[in-house]
Amino acid sequence: MEFPLEEAYQEFVRFAYTSLDRIVIRGYVGLLQSPGGFVTWARKVIPGRAVTASWLGSLARRFQKGVQRFAEEHAIPIIPAPKGQRKEEVARRYRTRWKGKTGVYLIIKGREKARLYESREPRQSTVPLHRNLLRRERYVDHYYFYLVDRYWGAMSLKFCSHIPFNVTVFLNGNRWLAEEARRRGLRVGTKENSIVRCRDPEILQEVSDSLVWQRIRSVCDTWTYRLLPAFTEDERRGSGFHYRWFFSQVEMSHNLVFKKSERLTEILEEHVDRNRRSLHPVSLKTVFRNRPGGSYKSEMDVSVRHSFGALTVLKARYGKSLLRQYNNHGTTFRTEGVTNDTRELGVGKSIENLEELRRSLLALIARFQAAQTPAVATVMNRGELAALAEPGRVNDIPTAGIKLENERILAVIAALPRLANVPEGFRARELCPIVEEILGRPYTRAQATYDLRKLRGKDLVQRRPCRNAYYSTPEGFRIAAVLAKLKEELLEPILTTARKAGKAPSSDGRPPGCYYRSLAEQLRLLCEYIGLEAAA
After folding, report:
1. 24: which strand partners?
2. C-beta separation of 122 from 132 below 8 A
3. Which of 46-55, 275-284, 433-442 has the lowest mean pLDDT?
4. What is the pLDDT of residues 330-345, one digit of tens each?
5. Which range among 224-228, 466-470, 479-483, 509-513 has the greatest average pLDDT?
6. 3-state SS record for 157-169
7. How far is CA 218 from CA 211, 227, 234, 353, in A?
8. d(CA 370, CA 365)
9. pLDDT at 534 over 50
């Protein structure tokens, strides 16, 4: 699969690879998820006895005593959940002091909400063993086991201490990739959960693609049944107690490993600045939905925030799916596709659908980067700005040129990136409120129709056949991005300064003539830095 940013930034990149990143798996025992199934299972565990509240409580006490016994036998500390700190940060400090290679090194105990069973004796019943079973939400103890696995590196499991003993497994695909690459004899260098050095990126990508769902099930089964203190192996087999595994959250990452961290910081800031205007929430439809159509009721937003050590993060959200880009540990330009509900991507939640989910997330990332590419390539060739003023033609009928001093037409061009990726095209009535917001005054449909015709004459906008709808061409997107940057970063500051100066340049080398020549040179350097070439 092709990723447009690899070509756009290829001169700055050492190598690129894709990999699963954070993987959150939830385990459920199917029989225990409904009262009827729970009773069926309980009859195998305690035949001839009622499912009483005291028996349910004894299971929870047995679980907690088992955890305590396991911790004492292996000298593992059990600490309360930290307040005001992330559990992962606390676990990382313990891991640095830990001397072992594999196994559990820390257990964190905290109270969280869970849906539990309550047993109540019926008021009127002739059946002695009959009980009313209800599912209630309560705050109960949960145990986080932090450990190091031979194949997956650092990982963790969370157990609920009450029946039905649901479990959550937290894995990291990048850590698995690093460990697996080394086992296959590939020399790689890592930084936290990123691979930053690799002699053979093609083999690295082959290793990444070799992760199958059976490997995920294996690690989940191995550690869950080893650590579960509630039942012995014979009790599990006799009662049919076995977990099924489902995706809760999956992150797929596309990683561009840069040659120089300083250049990465500059490019990321510029990349975010260029795209935060063009990624209008409405345009996200065509990115998140591979086949646009139907109703779009999910919430959408685009935001830029500072996180991960005050680094800039560009985030686009649609429903329970998420796309984000950020600087990972100062070395990697990472684009992540995140799903918190695989059904939004048309994929089932079972881990057996891993390959289909991988393809869907990679396609999502590729579409996201494709939507960004026109804003990235904003360098204009000589003469393009001057050519805009020349008359154009629509169906062999002459149209007026585009004058850059016309504030209204500049506002229309500035609005194009917001509507660039609307799958069904945009109409004049959808353009009007955006232009009114930019201009700060009314803008009618008649004016929009006239201005759009001028843009069609310069091939900046095209009209969809048989529909009164328009779409921005790649050239129109590129020119709109350049003009927005030209207006905000060059024209407005210069005009403000010129108004304050109020003097004409002199022909000799004395002030203010030398100042204007100095300003011209500085403008030339600034144009080169931000990626603009002056029109002839």
Report:
1. 170, 249
2. yes
3. 275-284
4. 899 999 999 999 998 8
5. 224-228
6. EEEECCCCCCEEE
7. 12, 14, 20, 15
8. 9
9. no
Mean pLDDT of 182-193: 90
Name the helix (H) or strand (E) containing 303.
strand 300-307
The residues, any chain, with a CB within 8 Å of residue 132's CB and separated by 6 or more, are 119, 120, 121, 122
Quote the tokens at residue 361.
């997330």
Q: What is the DSSP letter of 349?
A: S
Its pTM stands at 0.73
CA-wise closest residue to 81 among 157, 141, 26: 141
Q: 407-415 and 474-486 helices cross at what angle (nearest 10)? A: 120
Residue with tokens 């909400």: 113
The secondary structure element, H or E, covering residue 313 is: strand 311-318
Sheet strands (E) in 208-242: none
3-state secondary structure of 76: coil
Residue 339 DSSP class: E
| In the chain, domain spans | 4-373, 384-479
Got the DSSP string for 102-157? SEEEEEEEEEEEEEEEEEE--SS-S-TT--EEEEEEEEEEEEEEEEEETTTEEEEE
Query: Tokens 């080169």 label which residue?
Result: 528
Distance, CA of 146 to CA of 87 (rounded, Å): 10
Asked: is 384-479 a CATH 3.30.70.100 domain? The reply is no
Cβ–Cβ under 8 Å, residues 63 and 253: no
What does the alpha-carbon distance between residue 339 and residue 321 come to, in Å, rounded to a whole number?
A: 4
**Which of 437, 343, 445, 453 lies closest to 397, judged by CA?**
453
Contacts of 536 (CB under 8 A, 6+ apart): 382, 383, 386
Question: What burial class does residue 242 get, using C-beta atoms within 10 Å of its C-beta: 0-12 exposed, 13-18 middle, 19+ buried?
Answer: middle
What is the C-alpha to C-alpha distance for residues 232 and 434, in angstroms, rounded to an integer?
65
What is the C-alpha to C-alpha distance for residues 187 and 178, in angstroms, rounded to an integer?
Answer: 9
pLDDT at 382: 44
pLDDT tens-digit map of 69-104: 999 999 999 999 998 889 999 999 999 999 888 999
Candidates 329, 320, 332, 309; CA nearest to 364 is 320
Tokens 């009450």, residue located: 162
Alpha helices (H) along 377-491:
384-388, 407-415, 428-439, 445-457, 474-486
Phi, psi of 228 (to 5 degrees): -65, 115
Task: Please work out, in degrees rounded to the nearest 5, the angle formed at the alpha carbon of residue 297 by the alpha carbons of 293 and 301.
Answer: 105
332 sits in which H/E element: strand 332-339
